[in-house]
Amino acid sequence: MKLYTVGTGSLGNCYLLKRDNNKIIALDCGCKWRDVLIGCNFRPIDIELALVTHSHNDHARYVGDFTGNGIDLVSFENSFPKKIYKKGDSAVVPFEVPHDVKNYGYMIRVDGRTIVYMTDFGYCKYTFRSWNVDTWIIACNYLEAPNADEANYAHVVMGHSSLDTVKDILAVNKSDSMKNVILCHTSSSADTELMVSEIQKVVGDGVNVTVARKKEVIDL
Predict the structure, then answer these.
(1) Nearest to 47 by CA among 79, 62, 55, 61
(2) What is residue 82's predicted lDDT score, i.e. its pLDDT?
(3) Could you say which DSSP state residue 3 is in?
(4) Can you tell me whether residue 193 is helix, strand or coil?
(5) Cβ within 8 Å of residue 213, ≥6 positions away
(6) Helical H runs in 8-126?
(7) What count of other Cβ atoms lies within 10 Å of the Cβ of residue 107?
(8) What is the CA radius of gyration of the chain?
(9) Cis peptide before 81 (omega within 30 of 0)
């Protein structure tokens, strides 16, 4: 299984989870369709499902391109309170995470793997240790919050995860099953090397910790 990053960050988020059978699960729809086509080798028919976390443009601007090409959608509008969504041999469990709009993370079970994708959250009230999650695709937006008197303070602190928040989530959910931690939606000014180093200390040397970068492929 591989993860291809179409785009990440405030300009647009979309990640393609590529299965060994060449089928694809898209995570968010915030990137231009032509870039998605490049990521799926111009075979949109291979995209069997798209999961959308919330309504902000950098995650949902191009939803119409996906639905217009016949791709099934699980989104903030239709996923909750439905407890599980099944598509073929894939199962998706949505869960709410706090943001300044309705926002969901997703636990995905496919090909014997359990993957958690969550982004644009202030914190997470759920734990997943008993679910044997092997891969985390998780937003790590900033190292330290802006000053309280700055205009974007509430938006950043209430709706985006700090390094310390991500470390706490991974520490609580650490298990022998954990194999990959992919940091996404990092701020352009963030010290990603420090983020990786600090998270590696939490999860241990046996876990692959890396940063999602545009047009790069990560083996899972």
Answers:
(1) 62
(2) 61
(3) E
(4) helix
(5) 5, 8
(6) 33-39, 57-60, 63-68
(7) 19
(8) 16
(9) yes
pLDDT value of residue 156: 54
**Cα four-point dihedral sign 9, 4, 215, 12:** negative
User: What pLDDT is stored for residue 81 in this prediction?
Assistant: 47
With a CB cutoff of 8 Å and minimum separation 6, the contacts of 120 are: 53, 54, 56, 59, 97, 99, 103, 139, 159, 160, 161, 185
**Across all residues in the chain, what is the average pLDDT?**
91
pTM score, whole prediction: 0.93
What's the pLDDT at 142?
83
- 192-203 and 163-173 helices, crossing angle to 10°: 20
Q: What contacts 57, CB < 8 A, 6 or more positions away?
A: 30
Which ranges of 28-117 would DSSP assign to H, the alpha helix?
A: 33-39, 57-60, 63-68
- 111 in helix, strand or coil? coil
Task: Report the 10 Å Cβ neighbour count for 9.
Answer: 20
Rounded Cα–Cα distance for residues 66 and 79 (Å): 17
8 Å CB contact between 50 and 77:
no
State which amino acid sits at residue 162. S
Q: Could you say which residues of the chain have pLDDT below 50?
A: 81, 148
